[in-house]
Write a structure and sequence with these properties.
0% strand
Amino acid sequence: MSDFDNNRVVQYVPADISEPPMVQQLRERRGGSLLNLDRMLLHSPNFALAWNTMFGTLRGNAIDIHQKYKELAICSIAVLNKAEYEFYQHEKPWLEAGATATQVSAIRLVNSDAFDKSCFDTLELKVIQLTIEMTTKIETSDELMSSLKTELGDKQLVELVGVIAGYNMVSRFLVAMHITADGEDNN
């Protein structure tokens, strides 16, 4: 941990915060407690509310793209952007959605020559490729987008691109604000 982390420029709000009223919404979405991310966002309650609404939608059942593909993309983003907190929060949901321990270990090397693609199926590899392209190049290849459109359809492709775009924002916020899992339970 760096000195900056110990002397955070913007400290987390207290874990027992009860105001503003939307704090209860956050607690309900999180199963009763606030994440360190929430405690940082709550410096701006309106921003925290908008964040909660957007990411509650992206992570929840309101969109059709399978949870396994969402979490695969999110964990890939976390590695690509060096957002360890993001990986910490999404590894367990990815496993619960059907990932294997081998896949979790493999994705940790997604940005290296040692990345072993053999444990992923064809669609998973396309999700990873889309995530890499959107995260590192911004632009996507027409061939990949066409192939994903054929496999997923318009709605799920839009959702997948939205998840990748949104969680790139998350990783950038986490890294810039030095948000860690220190003192946080992984529920």
